[in-house]
What does this fold into?
Amino acid sequence: MLNIVIFGAPGSGKGTQSDKIAERYGLQHVSTGEILREEIASSTDLGKLADSYMSKGELVPDCVVIEMLEELIARNKGAKGFIFDGFPRTVPQGEALNQLLQRHDETVTIVVSLEVEDEELVDRLLKRGAISGRADDNRKTIESRLRVYYRQTAPLKDFYRSKDLLKEITGIGSVESIFESIVKEIDKVIV
Ligand code: AP5
Ligand code: MG
It folds into this structure.
């Protein structure tokens, strides 16, 4: 199996690149943010709980997302592999993912981190907010998402660097050129 983690700040292009990677390598795209937004749209109990965090730009508690992921992996046992987008987001989530994959005799193959400076991130998200109206794409929530990223999620880079899995890639430029750089790194670890 090929198990890729795509990592990066809000607006760094995780979703955009994950779609392309999933298609290229035949992987199951797992976006915890998308799953949670679907729960919110369906007004489920999980959605209501998630909304109370997401609307403030805070992380949904680890136990909630870890359980979600456990179910998803179990349901997709036949998959060729996964691209994890927006998960893990804390060190405990990173540890949980390792344990979860280990149970299926699997590991994380590579972690791709998209590097984009804050100004560009805010710009992209404000622009998307003006068009698509994702509820958390407003200035106040964007600022909170960025703070949360640096405080709670960025420490995972050291976690994966120490396991020699981290590949940092410039997330600025055309979607195609960034994709090409990602493919180069993935192809190095699968051949
Ligand atoms: P999530 O849905 O994961 O959102 P995010 O991390 O804030 O990131 P985005 O989805 O906004 O950005 P992206 O990196 O996917 O970039 P995209 O490709 O869309 O999480 C949302 C919330 O859910 C969290 O705040 C949290 O509350 C909760 N949550 C989710 N997972 C969780 C977890 N594991 N634990 C706890 N809580 C969790 O691109 C952004 C924009 O830029 C788009 O408009 C795109 O068209 C544009 N763009 C993309 N690439 C380029 C480029 N190269 N040049 C110019 N523009 C570009
Ligand atoms: Mg996304």
Notes: The two ends are 13 Å apart (CA to CA).
